Amino acid sequence: MRLFVAALLFSASACALAQAPEQRLFEAIEDGKSVVAEGIVARGQVKLDARNAQEETPLHLAIEKGFKELAAMLVKAGARVDARSKSGETPLHAAALHEDMFFVELLLAAKADAKIRNEAGESALYWAALTGNGPAARRLIEQGADPKLADLKGNTLLHACADGGHLELANALLAIGVDPRQRNQEGKRPSDIAKERGYAELAKRLERFEK
After folding, report:
1. Which residues pair with 117 in a beta bridge?
2. Which DSSP helix (H) or strand (E) runs through 201?
3. 79: helix, strand or coil
4. Does residue 16 carry a pLDDT above 50?
5. 3-state DSSP call for residue 123?
């Protein structure tokens, strides 16, 4: 029934015949019209790996917007799960920001590579750490993401946790051996970042493991 409604809405919105289906798909996603976007995909006449100005694919955007049905349709239809944007992010980077594990599990089931890093050297795991997303971080580590890698500025997952004050995830990373003594290119340890951000409890915890 959902696809039937989607197809009807797509037909009703297809008055701009000069537009390519890919352009209509991007516009539908950007406008939050997930059902219209599903209808465009359902017709099967759209390039699933088309790119916007940021070189994001429809799958990137569907996950960023939190459109579960659309993301699942795109993956099932063969969209590339490891496609990179202009700055090197894959759909898994966006998925790692969602508390709901649907998108992470969807992409990993489709063999997305948990180890890919963007142009700044940040993996999807790093993005999970930035938001304190423990379940996503745990799953990505299980799939091979290295918790001890730093980005190109020398920031570790603990630096990322310190930036957002994520004590619970920091504790989990300390428990698996992520080094709190490692300094970034500015010479700062994660505890320094935590202090700067006003996260006294986290800073104290990190300092304890520095000894």
Report:
1. 123
2. helix 200-210
3. coil
4. no
5. strand
Length of the chain counted residue by residue: 211
Integer Cα distance of 200 and 198 in angstroms:
6
Query: What are the tens digits of pLDDT across the range 115-166?
Result: 999 999 999 999 999 999 999 999 999 999 999 999 999 999 999 999 999 9
Q: How many helices (H) and strands (E) does the chain have?
A: 13, 0
How many other C-beta atoms are found inside a 10 Å radius of the C-beta of residue 62?
Answer: 28
What sign for the dihedral angle of Cα 161, 56, 64, 137?
A: negative
Q: Which residue has the tokens 């993956």?
A: 75
**C-alpha to C-alpha distances, 121 to 57, 129, 151, nearest whole angstrom:** 21, 14, 4
Of 154, 148, 161, nearest to 201 by C-alpha is 161
Written in H, E and C, the secondary structure of 4-52 is: HHHHHHHHHCCCCCCCCHHHHHHHHHHCCCHHHHHHHHHCCCCCCCCCC
